Structures are given as C-alpha cells and as structure tokens.
Amino acid sequence: MKKILILNGPNLNLLGNRETDLYGKESLKDIENSCKKKCDSINLSCNFIQSNNEGELINLIQSVQSDFDGLIINPAAFTHTSIAILDALRTISKPKIEIHLSNIYTREEYRKKSITAEGVNGIICGFGSLSYTLAIEAMNKLIKK
Ligand code: DQA
After folding, report:
1. How far apart are CA 50 and CA 125, in angstroms?
2. C-alpha span between 16 and 78 (Å, rounded)
C-alpha cells in the first residue's frame, strides 16, 4: 500500500478555536479523521502530524524520501518565511503538494508570497478543510501515475 505524510505547521493545533471566520470550526482532529477516511476509501495509508517546531518539520520532510510515497504539507506561517523548509522540500523527489485552508492570495500582502511553493508540484488553497481531501485525491493520481 502506498503511504503519504500529511504535515501541519505552527498553530494548526488550535484549529476550531483560532480565527474561525478564516479557518473554520473544525478541529485538526476532525480534519485528520476526514483525511484518514478519504485515504481508506482510495487504499492509501497516511500519517498525519502537526508540529509548532520548524526543525521537527524539516526532519519529517527529510524522512519522506525514504519512508513515504508523497507529501502533503500545510506549512502555516512558515510558508511565508522559511527558506529552510523550502530547501528541505527541494531534497525530495516524491510528489509534494502545498495546501492552505484560506486563500492566501486574497489576504494580507505578507501572505501573498509563498516561499515554500517553489519546492512543491502544486498548491491547493482556499477551500477550507476540503483543501486537504482535494490534495489527497490529487496525490493519489500523482503517486499511481
Ligand atoms: C494557513 C495560511 C497561513 O498564512 C497562516 O499563517 C496559517 C494557516 C492556511 O491554512 O490558510 O497558519 O496556512
């Protein structure tokens, strides 16, 4: 069975309580459950992890090359700041998709630039928690192509 990693960056552990007008009322656990259900339905195995720590995220990204078939990542605020996460993404030859709950291109100027996007195959953003399940569908096609 093909195996993917779904990584979540800083403050996403607070989903459901945090700026719900922007990010919705679902908790990260709710989103994890939807992702697991989606993956089960298409016969993919998935690990779903959140970290507030940049170094930990980088270690997990580095593990994708040997331990997973693809990566879905919501780098959260590191999207706009982290060349280190971009560099880690660039070391992986497996399919990679960046996702965001909100449409970062309709928000503050400083969110309109994604540094990490340069290291992935494509981005899905602006669909709330649906961004995650859409990314799983796209990942399934990329992996099984
Ligand atoms: C986010 C968008 C980022 O700009 C923000 O820092 C987040 C969440 C999103 O999913 O919409 O923490 O990645």
Report:
1. 18
2. 20
Mutational test site, ligand 1, from 54, 98, 101, 115, max ligand atoms within 8 Å of CB: 101
- Catalytic residue status for 100: yes
Distance CA 122, CA 131 (A): 12
- Residue pLDDT, tens place only, 80-97: 999 999 999 999 999 999
Distance 27 CA to ligand 1 centre (A): 14
pTM above 0.85, yes or no: yes
Q: Using a 6 Å cutoff on CB, does residue 140 contact ligand 1?
A: no
HSE, side-chain direction, 13 A CA sphere, residue 23: 19
pLDDT tens string 64-85: 999 999 999 999 999 999 999 9
10 Å Cβ neighbour count for 32?
A: 18
CA distance 75 to 143: 21
Mean pLDDT of the chain: 97
Distances (CA, A) of 18 to 1, 15, 99: 35, 5, 18
